[in-house]
Design brief:
Bound molecules: (3R)-3-hydroxy-3-methyl-5-(phosphonooxy)pentanoic acid
Distance between the termini: 47 Å
Shape: globular
Largest sheet: 7 strands, mixed
Strand content: 25-35%
Structural class: alpha+beta
Helix content: 40-55%
Oligomer: single chain
């Protein structure tokens, strides 16, 4: 029996979530963990097994998972039905792009089954159809990260542009509590903007300038500057009412434990927090990996002592380019 396999990366948004829905650029980094899927041809109607659940593709089901699977399959109908098994190492609804990573992994497994280019437009179209069921109005940043990994600037109307990182980023990513629905959080920001157009204008302008500065900071290896910009982004997100008391506590704990900056990542309302660890001395001299890892451990220990779980993710600097 033929089999196709696929994987998709999780992501963390360093700056610009929510504003990205309105066309402002955001900066994201792919994580070295994500989702995997295997697809086999089947004589039965198409099914998806995810964790302990088994759903049949059904465009009119109440179950979002069944509808999302049907939407993903419908982009380019397959010659035969499929049985797909998928799993994710990312917490669902945690702001780490778990659903997009799954969509990309499943789409790649389907393309793998039919031996077509696994990075083609079809994978992106399938993943977007899948995401639309969960998100309503996704900017596409999650699906882009799941497809390409690395660190990039993303703009809704222009897509992604890679960033060349001058220094490794050591990130602590923790869970503040159960994640809220991305769709609900995006809708609540839309209602706020409809009531307060002036806040919409000023917030989007402010995020735009933070993102532009963060791009320069990343490319120059200015981690202290990047951390400050993340803190400022968090203030703006709190102004959009997408932060919560546990998110604010986690950010404060991280900063008190030496983080250069901390903010929610993803849709907010719960879910994930990202803290930038100190991995440099003043003067941009990099610390050893062991020193950076122990800086990260201090933050995780402070979170654990207050009942929050977390993990360390490392985003590696770009290799210097060969001169032509
Ligand atoms: O919570 P996540 O990982 O799905 O991230 C959502 C990011 C938003 O900007 C809030 C929505 C979007 O589609 O870009």
């Amino acid at each position: 029996m033929r089999e196709g396999r696929g994987a998709g990366a999780g992501k963390v948004i360093l700056l610009g979530e929510h504003a990205v829905v309105y066309g402002v650029p955001a900066i994201a980094a792919g994580l070295d963990r994500g989702a995997q899927a295997t697809a086999r041809e089947s004589d039965e109607p198409s099914t998806l097994r995810l964790g302990g659940r088994l759903v049949r593709a059904d465009a009119s089901a109440d179950d979002e998972l069944a509808r999302a699977f049907a939407a993903l399959l419908a982009v380019h109908p397959l010659a035969s039905a499929v049985a797909v098994e998928a799993s994710s190492e990312l917490p669902p609804g945690g702001g780490l792009g778990s659903s997009a990573a799954l969509g990309v992994a499943i789409a790649r497994a389907l393309e793998g089954l039919h031996e077509v280019d696994a990075d083609g437009e079809r994978v992106a179209a399938r993943a977007t159809a899948w995401e639309s069921v969960f998100h309503g109005n996704p900017s596409g940043i999650d699906a882009t990260a799941a497809l390409r990994g690395g660190c990039f600037v993303y703009r809704r109307d222009e897509g992604a542009r890679s960033l060349r990182l001058a220094a490794d980023l050591w990130l602590c990513i923790g869970k503040s509590g159960p994640g809220a629905s991305t769709r609900a959080m995006v809708e609540s920001v839309a209602r706020l903007f409809a009531r307060r157009p002036e806040q919409q204008r000023s917030t989007l302008e402010a995020v735009l300038s933070l993102v532009k500065n963060a791009e320069l900071a990343l490319e120059a290896g200015d981690l202290t500057g990047l951390g400050r910009l993340m803190d400022l982004n968090q203030m703006l997100l709190a102004g959009l009412m997408v932060s919560t008391e546990p998110i604010e506590r986690m950010c404060a704990l991280a900063r008190e434990s030496g983080a250069l900056g901390a903010k929610l990542t993803g849709a907010g309302g719960g879910g994930a927090v990202v803290a930038l660890c100190a991995s440099q001395r003043a003067g941009a001299l990099e610390l050893t990996d062991a020193d950076a890892a122990s800086a990260a451990e201090r933050i995780l220990a402070a979170w654990r002592a207050s009942g929050f779980d977390g993990l360390v993710a490392r985003v590696r600097r770009s290799e210097p380019q060969e001169s032509p």
